[in-house]
Amino acid sequence: MKLQDIKREWWKEGVVYQIYPRSFQDSNGDGIGDLRGIINRLDYIQSLGVDTIWLNPIYSSPNDDNGYDISDYRNIMSEFGDMADFEELLAGMHERGLKVVMDLVVNHCSDEHEWFQQAKTSRDNPYYDYFHWWPAEKGTPPVRWSYFDPEANAWRYNAATDSYYLHYFAIKQPDLNWENPKLRAEIYDMMHYWFKKGIDGFRMDVITFISKHDGYPEFPVEFHGDKMIDMYAQGPRLHEYLHEMNREVLQHYDCMTVAEGPGTHTDNVLALVDEDRQELNMNYHFDHQQIGVGPRFIVNDDFQNLVKFKQIMSEWDAALADKGWNTVYFGNHDFPRMVTRWASDAPEYRRYASKMLSTYLLTMRGTPYYYMGDEIGMSNIKFDNIEDYKDIMTINWYELTKAEGGDLDKFMESHKLCARDNARTPVHWDDTAHAGFTTGEPWIKVNPNYTDINVAAQENDPDSELNYFRALNALRKANLTVIYGRYDLLLPEHDDIYAYTRTLDDEVVLVLLNFSANAHRLDINALVDNVGPATSMLLDNYAHHAEASEIGYLRAYQAQVIKL
Ligand code: GLC
Ligand code: CA
């Protein structure tokens, strides 16, 4: 596609930076990050050169699942502050040219939400139909699998109504009934409320799950256990609802939307994000996250299989090359730290490895979703004791494994690599107590490597991961080829190297990434045929190394961005 034929959009060009407020910065010493903490760090956030901030849920919540269980959609979680803080934060971001995207969690709410408090009292209550129920007189409900239920059962009996309510996630997260037009109208109204405050978009939590199959038929056995995800994402009215949401709400604002899309694959994603269908702008998938990771996050030998990774990422690029728009991410609050998961957190490699991964995210086609702390190369904390975990998912899975007599050592080892809490430890600001995150006791342990890895130390180091990330953002802003250029994979079968070109009109950018500790020499004239005399290095994560870099010679975890 030529530049002149491309529909340019701010949400295609911007880099999204994700803030998990609970772990970003505490301002009042209670050990919990808060909105005032983010306000105090606004200049830092702006200094990164990112464009859009995605805030994980900040609404009122009893925090069974850290804010993904909302008890009031129009108020701020008391631990995080109040509405005045939110308005100040929003204004502070807008003054700095940053867009703000909120989490929209409407597949379920909290059982402490007024709707559920009413609904659970009687079948005649007007809110009963805001939820999904299976009346006990019909017998045991058909199998539905739950992520966070201690028995993995998504139905829970409620005596007052003599019926079971559906909860794909925790017991305290009842699923909302989108079949009910009143419920949908309430949600659209709530979305208008936030847009009128001035927010710039929504990241939609497990939005692919909102439509349930009529009558809850038994799913075929191949969709049992965690394979149910693919059925959950195929509810018959998903697209009808999203189209309606677009017409009722989204089309009225200059906003961006992104689906968290469990169960989306390259063959069904366009139904969500093809602009002609008027649903959502973007989706993020889980296909690469599943490489080498089985049920309950048990890891196998494929964990860092680069050939598979390249294949998956390339297929996703192709699926969205002409219509829709892709997203790229390594980690977020649901996945481990990127440097541990996708490269190496060994002290001798860590710095190069995290710069290399950042290079990938910011030079691929698709909007990058970049997780807080990755800009300084934070790594997994790797808890030895189950008592250190705070995440309901890890704790329940541990208990399930224990009850089944499963291999708990293997579980603990796998979770050092994959548990969600690895990404939820507090951001390292400096080398003072608790990494400058709090003056109190942090709600979750701080990674002891904060004395080596922290913002203060990296601010003044021209070779730091932090300053490299800033340079990458500047490069991307100055270079439309890196944003819109066609993506072509080179060396698909290479075990260690990820190489590709980005091409827009006459400009070609070559990206060479070494995902391993082995050195490799590549002949770039053999790789690409348009190597011109003015070939130059745009960015190199070994630029400050004592030995000069050479185009095409890649040392451990080296990244080179080359203009041909
Ligand atoms: C999404 C969120 C995750 C949460 C779950 C239930 O996957 O990203 O953190 O636990 O939905 O709301
Ligand atoms: Ca606090």
Topology (SSEs and partners):
Blueprint: H1 10-13, E1 16-19, H2 35-40, H3 42-47, E2 52-55, E3 59-60, E4 72-76, H4 83-95, E5 99-104, H5 114-119, E6 133-135, E7 155-158, E8 163-166, H6 181-197, E9 201-204, H7 228-232, H8 238-248, E10 256-260, H9 270-273, E11 282-284, H10 306-319, E12 327-328, H11 338-342, H12 350-363, E13 367-371, H13 392-403, H14 408-418, H15 455-459, H16 465-477, H17 480-484, E14 486-490, E15 497-504, E16 507-514, E17 520-521, H18 524-527, E18 536-540, E19 553-554, E20 559-563
Parallel strand pairs: 1-2, 1-13, 2-5, 5-9, 9-10, 10-11, 12-13
Antiparallel strand pairs: 3-4, 6-8, 7-8, 14-15, 15-16, 16-20, 17-19, 18-20
Helix pairs in contact: 12-16, 13-14
Alpha-D-glucopyranose (GLC) binds at residues 65, 68, 105, 169, 205-206, 260, 333-334.
Q: Tell me the strand order in the biggest sheet.
A: 11-10-9-5-2-1-13-12
Oligomeric state, counting identical vs distinct chains: single chain
Low-confidence residue ranges: none
Radius of gyration: 24 Å
Protein name: Alpha-glucosidase
Pfam family, one: Malt_amylase_C
Domain Glycosyl hydrolase family 13 catalytic: 18-424
Family: Belongs to the glycosyl hydrolase 13 family.
